[in-house]
Amino acid sequence: MKISLSLPTFEAELNTDPCDPYNNAELTLTLKLGFRQINPAGGAADGTYHDYGDAAEPTRRIVKWTNGAWNLWKRNFVSSAVNFWNGKFWLSNNFALYEFDKNGVKYRPNIWCRFCIEDRDISFGGHHQVIDVVRLHHSENWFGSHASLYDSLDTRMVRKGTNSRHRAIMQRAHVHEVGHLLGLDHVDVGKAHCPPGGDTNGATCYGVADADKNSVMGQGMQLRTTQAMPWRKAIIAIATQGAALTLTDWEARLQRLYPRNPAEIAAGRLVTTRQLRR
Ligand SMILES: [Zn+2]
């Protein structure tokens, strides 16, 4: 069974076909992204472009995209962002939902969180986000980019900050930005030093404690279970028609959870290792 749902920020599809005593239902979130080249004016090979696309900001040297460089950049963006976000979370099913029978035993699957990016031609429309991309001249190593304006270096691992031991914290900017596209805020939004109503792009919103700085929604590359929220919201919308999400419903783990039989459910535990199933 497949159930699809279009939400403003992404498409969601629940697929229960893979369910067996070892495999869960899969929930795939798909972002339809359109990529658009920004080239030097007048068809020139070289030119300039402003940081953040804002005429008041400094200019950087840019060069014209070639087909080869463009396709390589897009492929790398899509594959590395998908590789980062796909298949990392499992949501534990605490409802009597999607249960299936195998050899007389009723199993309850969990939800495996999948992620997909559709590189959708600009002319098709219907994108969740259109992203403009400048190709930086080799003399430039920095450009002011944001969620809908990237530079050709944004898929590289760069130093975003420093931890309390003065060690570099590295991040690939695009995986952080894809987190925003999925609806995630900066790691410390909601804390006293980064109130939700204030400027959530302030430096402290990217984390103050090392553990928070290391988060992908801070300055680093680490995932945490709170970042499964887009999938939790999607499964709530699909499975329980938007019922209020409680802390324990569809709780996320960064660890594979196996489908449970009635005895395992009654024992109130999650199954994290492969059990002998008949
Ligand atoms: Zn951000």
Low-confidence stretches: none
- Class based on secondary structure composition and strand pairing: alpha+beta
Bound molecules: zinc ion
Number of strands: 14
Average pLDDT across residues?
A: 94
The H/E string reads EEEEEHEEEEEEEEHHHEH
Estimated share of beta-strand residues:
25-35%
Give a quick account of the main beta sheet: strands, pairing sense, barrel closure: 10 strands, mixed
Can you tell me the overall shape?
A: globular
Give the C-alpha Rg.
21 Å
**Structure annotation, total helices:** 5
End-to-end Cα distance, whole Å, is: 24 Å
- The percent of residues in helical segments reads 10-25%
| Count of spatially separate domains | 1
Characteristics of this structure?
27% strand, single chain, alpha+beta, 278 residues, two-stranded antiparallel ribbon, globular
Structural account:
The protein is of the alpha+beta class. It has one domain (2-156, 225-266). It has five helices and 14 strands. It has helices at 67-85, 173-181, 210-213, 229-239, 262-266; strands at residues 2-6, 11-15, 25-38, 46-50, 59-63, 89-91, 100-102, 105-107, 111-119, 129-136, 149-151, 157-162, 168-172, 252-253. Strands 1, 2, 3, 4, 5, 6, 9, 10, 11 and 14 form a ten-stranded mixed sheet that branches. A two-stranded antiparallel ribbon has the order 7-8. Strand 7 (100-102) and strand 8 form a beta hairpin. Helix 1 packs across helix 2. The chain starts with a strand and ends in a 12-residue tail after the last helix. The relative contact order is 0.18. Zinc ion binds next to helix 2.
